[in-house]
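Researcher: For the annotation table, I need structure tokens for 3-isopropylmalate dehydratase large subunit. Please keep the output clean. Sequence:
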Amino acid sequence: MSPKTLYDKIWDAHVAHEADDGTCLLYIDRHLVHEVTSPQAFEGLRMAGRKVHAPDKTIAVPDHNVPTTLDRANAATMTEDSRIQVEALDKNAADFGIHYYPVSDIRQGIVHIVGPEQGWTLPGMTVVCGDSHTATHGAFGALAHGIGTSEVEHVLATQTLIQKKSKNMKVEITGKLRPGVTAKDITLSVIGHTGTAGGTGYVIEYCGEAIRDLSMEGRMTVCNMAIEGGARAGLIAPDEKTFAYVMGRPHAPKGAQWEAALAWWKTLYSDADAHWDKVVTIKGEDIAPVVTWGTSPEDVLPITGKVPAAEDFKGGKVEAAKRSLEYMGLEPGTPLNQIKIDTVFIGSCTNGRIEDLRAAAEILKGKKIAVKRAMVVPGSGLVRAQAEEEGLAQIFIDAGFEWRLAGCSMCLAMNPDQLQPGERCAATSNRNFEGRQGRGGRTHLMSPAMAAAAAVTGHLTDVRELM
Ligand SMILES: CC(C)[C@H](C(=O)O)[C@@H](O)C(=O)O
Ligand code: SF4
């Protein structure tokens, strides 16, 4: 048998039909659904008089539009558009009999945090969602990617997806990370290195000692941003850490089924002599705590750096950098750690898990914020409950942070949590596009520890100075 990558193995195990031109029909194991990209898909089913093909494999949760304030049970806190979308999901979940975590359920949260938490996401699966950050689930050694609304309808109706195979790309992070360097610094640094188009046409497998050393939370952070590097999906081979995380979760297999699943999961790795179409290798020790300065996730620099000048770039990037600097209100040559911050946002499907809150609380312990506003938005109700139990919530509150309910929140301006024009934010999310967090808002992406450091100093800060 010819050697295969992990991606090849999962792909081959899910192809139901292959056409002459290589177009395949893939079987889908898990379909995650949120309120933004599903209303038309359900409407399509309704009009055609069809059912959801596999309601037991379809899991829905509202996350993008939901307010995160404690009074959110009061529908008046939602805009009309948001309310319509969330109510539509309530109704669609009930009408079509799919698994559902409504706003009132403690398990509600960001779809990419809820899936793994509830044991829906398992190694070797195909996982799709009408959402680009579905790549997050690749941390389990699942083939997971975003799909469009018409594809959401196709998967609801048939539990299959029409796909062409991507190429194989390996991103290896060798050796150990230095103190203060986290999964977020890895994933941002990779995009800084390859650019936002570096992964176009590929599925990335992240590997190497630094990746193995990461917790499951950290691995999810890395895979989450595969899409920002242009890749179709990102994944990491499952290992003992993966199996330990999955074991005992509500929807993980049990007993004999667990044993059978485990036997298969242990075959899910890239063969030593598998073929890679592209390989990127980065030394773990070369990665620093980083921040973004511009309006693309590839605009990444170590915190010890300076704001670049447009002339530092080549080709089309010169104009893009000029525009970015203008939008961001930054002067070339300014040391990054002198950039003043108005707001700090800790949360999102990139960094809204318990380990992220622990890392931020570690820096904040006994300190006060020096920014206008700061909020922590746990990725799920269960993350929130655990953080309260561990005393993290109190650390955030004592420091001056708002302690919110779960949702996408200020990651994107689809709910009341938004930046004002010109407001500058240290954010743990994954996109820094113009207007992403609110019209005219300015976003600097970084790790939770770095965001906490910015919160206590009032400017972008090298977290290593506070450690
Ligand atoms: C709203 C949704 C379709 C979108 C996505 O696909 O990623 C959002 O989650 C985002 O992060 O921009
Ligand atoms: S937290 Fe942000 S990136 Fe993640 S799904 Fe929500 S809006 Fe998209």
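Researcher: And a one-line annotation?
Model: The pocket of iron/sulfur cluster (ligand 2) is lined by residues 63-64, 110, 112, 131, 133, 348-349, 408, 411-412, 429-430 (CB under 6 Å).
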